[in-house]
Amino acid sequence: xxxxxxxxxxxxxxxxxxxxxxxxxxxxxxxxxxxxxxxxxxxxxxxxxxxxxxxxxxxxxxxxxxxxxxxxxxxxxxxxxxxxxx
Length: 86
Fold this sequence. Notes:
Elements: H1 20-36, H2 42-54, H3 57-65, H4 82-85
């Protein structure tokens, strides 16, 4: 039987290559978000945090100021990175 010390431990994924300090900030922010928005699924809060942290401020402000977040969700602005992915 293998020694328990030889079993590899789970390493959480770090898709955005956050530093240790950034991961601690993310963890704290997610705790606060979960407290403030208890009915929102945790995965959505993670997605929201990562999107906001990794999107240029100009693009976030444009979305907020021009109301691009409003609508049915099927209409996407033509200047987003979505078309590059697809």
